[in-house]
Automatic annotation (TrEMBL):
It comes from Anolis carolinensis. Importin, which transports target proteins into the nucleus. Specifically mediates the nuclear import of splicing factor serine/arginine (SR) proteins, such as RBM4, SFRS1 and SFRS2, by recognizing phosphorylated SR domains. Also mediates the nuclear import of serine/arginine (SR) protein CPSF6, independently of CPSF6 phosphorylation. The nuclear import process is regulated by the small GTPase Ran that partitions between cytoplasm and nucleus in the predominantly GDP- and GTP-bound form, respectively. This is Transportin-3. Residues 105-251 form the Exportin-1/Importin-beta-like domain. Its main location: cytoplasm.
Length: 849
């Protein structure tokens, strides 16, 4: 459809566009029309065109578009209208909503929002609630849209779409509070007029809930209102429809939330408290009728009741508003067969646990212990798998996520019940117990015989039990690694148990993770099992492991390797790396066109994790045991880097592997420094992979303090900077290459931290050279002072602050020394500027001198 303003009146053009949007089947035409209408809505002409479309009332689509546009314009572009047009706009909107009240509810809602947003921004419209109620309360046909306006008005007060200040919001809330009794009286009148009209009752409850949410209703006035008794009457009735039941439930929850400060709202609090306690029978009826929607509504109400009176429940349990029947209601809900019901109450249980943890009162704890025990038993039942469930439950589906939330909750509540007692109570119920026991490992008492008993029982589980039980039991064993460390006699049976799982497809990855945990905690005990770990590492690809699980196994093996005697580490490291090195050599020998994958990232990542976690304790003067192996592997890594020099992903993995190799042996990698830097610079001239800059910063960190390495590192910096500056000086270069910018500044920072040549250069008495040095220092420090409103200022400020913390005293001392003993008088103004900038960053540093 082609739309031109030359052929039709503007509102006719818009009308045709709306019709095309809803009725023309061509997707590309719809998209063009939608974009055109969006532009119109943002234009100043939208005010008049929307008003015209609402006046002619052609159809639902055009009226909805016009009402939506009017609402959007008032929310975002109210400033476009002159002040003297506000009254006419208000009158026009009120006329439109009255004329269109029977066309469509969605149109009424959009116009109600427009009127509410206008009232909130139109300061001259004083007492808008009173005006609206006076105008429409006697007309039964106008009550639906009047209630809609009065519902959205409090909701819009805190809307982020409206551009009103805090003072105006305060003024609005005070005005609405003043007229809140007028609204409640109107709602009571509406109830009397509409009788049992379900749609109107829903509107009445929604409106009341909205005013509760705003927090402006008078507690005493509401405690005596017929509306409150009507709410509970509706909720108690078995025949109440789902929609009305939900509206009444929402309203009660809003009321409970509004009286969070119980003492200042005591009259209403007492009425709500008593009212909710009368709903237990209605809950049981909903359960009997299998009406899950109503069950969920009741549970929401019971939970909100408990959250509102939480302080009373904890401080005065069983007395007055601390009546423990409130918690009984939640435990009744926990017994419902659908786990979605108990899940609603989790936030309350979290908060209760937090309150009790802070309350060091044994009597209070003993009161709630039985309730928490009942909750944990209910959760154990909910976590149990169906008897016909096959395989391992997914952690990402709804039930899996529920089990994870249960795990978190149990860890927060276990302190109250005691892990030993929990173990004793639930360990016989295998399918649920294994999962709940795993959750309870978060806060366990040490050196407890029950834990040893549980560990012994788990590793003796027959292989015939459900695979899901074995899966969770393996997880449990992994989390009991500290128990194994304190009881090394269990190490052999535990490893045997985990090895069985490692050989099964569905249990391999979780078993690998458990072995990793055991290795991490029981390093010294595991040293005797290193040969077994080495055999697993050699056969890694024969197990059905996820990539993370395989890497985790190698990490655990490396951690144990680091605990071997120094003389054994080098040959063992060589054997551990050999499989990965052979894989790289095989990939290097492949022809590119043979159709096989030549991606070396898997062996590179595995080598990286080995280097990263092989950290033996080496005394000064001793040769690092890993040095020889890394030097032998270097040619393969170099060739891999060269072959894939254009592939950023693979080059990043190579650099990561080299980074951990350098970190592993520290200054013992000096023999690699020159060939590594030469290759980095060579490849970087062609392909500006930012990871080379990062690797360069690692080299500076390790060797920057070595006198013999400084010049080579400085040459590296210069060689890397030329292509880097060429890259970021391109149009939008900084925006297009943020990683390069990040790594370049990291490299520069490492130079400043590790090789502070500028400080040494302050003693130069050559006029131009000294001037350049001082300018560099002044500008460098100034970057952390000058707030130029750029987004990176805070980052720069923090970076310069770190430099000053580390080198500030040294720099100030050197400047003062050179000023007194080295420099001619004409250089002192430049020195003074540097000292001034340092004072702006850190006056105490300069003041100490």
């Amino acid at each position: 459809m082609s739309i031109t303003c030359e052929t039709l009146k503007p509102f006719r053009v818009v009308y045709q566009a709306v019709q095309a949007l809803y009725h023309v089947p061509d997707p590309s035409g719809k998209e063009r029309t939608s974009l055109w209408l969006g532009e119109l809505q943002r234009s100043v002409h939208a005010w008049e065109i929307s008003d015209q479309l609402l006046q002619i009332r052609q159809d639902v689509e055009s009226c909805y578009f016009a009402a939506q546009t009017m609402k959007m314009k008032i929310q975002t572009s109210f400033y476009e209208l002159p002040t003297d047009s506000h009254v006419s706009l208000r009158d026009s909107l009120l006329s439109h909503i009255q004329n269109l009240k029977d066309m469509s509810h969605v149109i009424v809602t959009q116009l109600a929002l427009a009127i509410a947003d206008l009232a909130l921004q139109m300061a001259s419209w004083k007492g808008c609630v009173h005006t609206l109620v006076e105008k429409y309360n006697n007309d039964v046909t106008s009550l639906p849209f009047l209630l809609e306006i009065l519902t959205v008005l409090p909701e819009e007060v805190h809307s982020r779409s409206l551009r009103i200040g805090a003072n105006r919001r305060t003024e609005i809330i005070e005005d609405l509070a003043f007229y809140s009794s007028t609204v409640v009286s109107l709602l009571v009148t509406c109830v009397e007029k509409v009788g049992n009209d379900e749609k109107m009752l829903i509107k009445i409850f929604r409106c009341l809930g909205s005013w509760f949410n705003l927090g402006v209703l008078d507690s005493t006035f509401m405690a005596n209102s017929k509306l409150l008794s009507l709410l509970f009457e509706v909720l108690q009735q078995d025949k109440t429809s789902s929609n009305l039941h939900e509206a009444a439930s929402d309203c009660v929850c809003s009321a409970l939330y509004a009286i969070e400060n119980v003492e200042t709202n005591l009259p209403l609090a007492l009425q709500l408290f008593q009212g909710v306690l009368t709903l237990e029978t209605a809950y049981h009826m909903a359960v009997a009728r299998e009406d899950l929607d109503k069950v969920l509504n009741y549970c929401r109400i019971f939970t909100e009741l408990c959250e509102t009176f939480l302080d009373k429940i904890v401080c005065t349990p069983g007395q007055g508003l601390g009546d423990l029947r409130t918690i009984e209601l939640l435990l009744i809900c926990a017994g419902h067969p659908q786990y979605e019901v108990v899940e609603i109450s989790f936030n309350f249980w979290y908060r209760l646990g937090e309150h009790l943890y802070k309350t060091e009162d044994a009597i209070i704890h003993s009161i709630f212990k039985a309730y928490i025990q009942r909750l944990l038993h209910a959760l154990a039942r909910h976590c149990q798998l169906d008897p016909d469930h096959e395989g391992i439950p997914e952690e990402t589906d709804d039930f899996g996520e529920f089990r994870m939330r249960v795990s978190d909750l149990v860890k927060d509540l276990i302190f109250l019940v005691g892990s030993v007692e929990c173990f004793a109570q639930v360990r016989v119920k295998r399918k649920a117990a294994a999962f709940v026991l795993k959750a309870r490992m978060g806060k366990l008492e040490e050196n407890n015989p029950t834990l040893v008993e549980v560990l012994d029982g788990v590793v003796r589980l027959p292989e015939s039990v459900h695979v899901a039980v074995r899966y969770t039991s393996i997880e449990l064993v992994g989390e009991m690694s500290e128990v194994v460390d304190r009881n090394p006699q269990f190490l052999d049976p535990v490893l045997g148990y985990l090895m069985k799982g490692l050989c099964e497809k569905t249990l391999a990855s979780v078993s690998a993770k458990a072995i990793h945990n055991i290795c991490s905690v029981c390093r010294d005990h595991m040293a005797q099992h290193f040969n077994g770990l080495l055999e697993i590492a050699r056969s890694l690809d024969s197990f059905m492991l996820s990539p993370d699980a395989a890497v985790g196994l190698l990490k655990g093996t490396a951690l144990v390797l680091a605990r071997l005697p120094l003389e054994k580490i080098s040959p063992c490291l060589g054997e551990l790396c050999a499989v990965q090195v052979m894989a790289l050599k095989k990939l290097l020998s492949q022809e590119p066109s043979n159709g096989l994958s030549s991606d070396p990232t898997v062996p590179l990542d595995r080598l990286a994790v080995i280097f990263r976690h092989t950290n033996p304790i080496v005394e000064n003067g001793q040769t690092h045991p890993c040095q020889k192996v890394i030097q032998e592997i270097w040619p393969v890594l170099s060739e891999t880097l060269n072959k894939h020099r254009a592939d950023n992903r693979i080059v990043e993995r190579c650099c990561r592997c080299l980074r951990f190799a350098v970190r592993c042996v520290g200054k013992g990698s000096a023999a690699l420094l020159q060939p590594l830097v030469t290759q980095m610079v060579s490849v970087y001239q062609e392909h500006q992979h930012s990871c080379f800059l990062y690797l360069g910063s690692i080299l500076v960190d390790e060797y920057g303090m070595e006198e013999g390495c400084r010049q080579g590192l400085l040459d590296m910096l210069q060689a890397l900077c030329v292509p880097t500056f060429r890259l970021i000086e391109q149009p939008n270069g900084l925006q297009n290459h943020p990683d390069t910018v990040d790594d370049l500044f990291r490299l520069a920072t490492r130079f400043i931290q590790r090789s502070p040549w500028a400080i040494a250069a302050t003693t130069l008495d050559h006029r131009d050279a000294n001037c350049s040095v001082m300018k560099f220092l002044r500008d460098l420090v100034h970057t952390g002072v000058a707030n130029d409103h750029e987004e990176d200022f805070e980052a720069r400020k923090e970076l310069i602050g770190q430099v000053m913390t580390q080198l500030g005293q040294q720099l100030v001392s050197q400047l003062l020394h050179t000023s007194c003993f080295c420099l001619p008088p004409y250089t002192l103004p430049d020195v003074a500027e540097v000292l001034w900038e340092i004072m702006q960053v850190d006056r105490p540093v300069s003041g100490r001198h």
